[in-house]
Amino acid sequence: METLTGAAVATLLLTKMIEKVGEKMGEKLPEFGSKAIEQIGKLKQVLWRKAPETASAIERVNYQPELVEQQPEEFGIEALTAKMELATKQDAEIAEVVDALAAEVLPQIPAKTAQVMAVGIKGKSLTAKDLIQEAATGSTDVNQQMLKDVEVEGDINLGNLTQKG
Asked: Which of 61, 112, 120, 156 has a Cα-to-Cα distance from 81 of 20 to 30 A?
């Protein structure tokens, strides 16, 4: 999963699509807690007051989730996130609530890291030195692959291969 912005997290939470993100990661997301729920309620209120067209689009997706796929240019998660990002740029109060929500929720979303190095090599010989794969601190779902599917006819010289995760 790429890095989520505050606006993306807010959009996913408001549209309840964060559950689908959790399914894609193969993990059940933790309960976000009362502080996050309070921030979600606050964000809904401030959006209806300050960016009613964004609030309306998000509300429609909650009642008609099929709109995400049927009309992605208007109701897709990317389009809704863009509307949320614009609202945060145009209004300091919206930005403040989105930032508070993101600060509460982002640390609870598992960080997924996939690293692939030297895969699918075919040749006569191979020398590899000082190969390091290191997952970011806080990554909870790490997949590292190094020197996979290597076909070498002659010598293989390896040294200092490290995976940290």
From this structure: 112
Contacts of 13 (CB under 8 A, 6+ apart): 32, 36, 40, 101, 105
| The residue to which tokens 């240019």 are assigned | 73
Rounded to an integer, what distance in angstroms lies between the CA atom of residue 106 and that of residue 128? 37
Task: Report how far apart, in Å, the C-alpha atoms of 164 and of each of 3, 40, 137, 146 are.
Answer: 20, 36, 10, 12
| Strands in 25-125 per DSSP E | 111-119, 122-123
Cβ distance 34 to 74 under 8 Å? Answer: no
Segment 54-79, tens digit of pLDDT:
999 998 988 888 888 899 999 988 89
Structure tokens belonging to residue 40: 């979600």
- Rounded CA separation 45/80 (Å): 17
Span 116-132, average pLDDT: 77
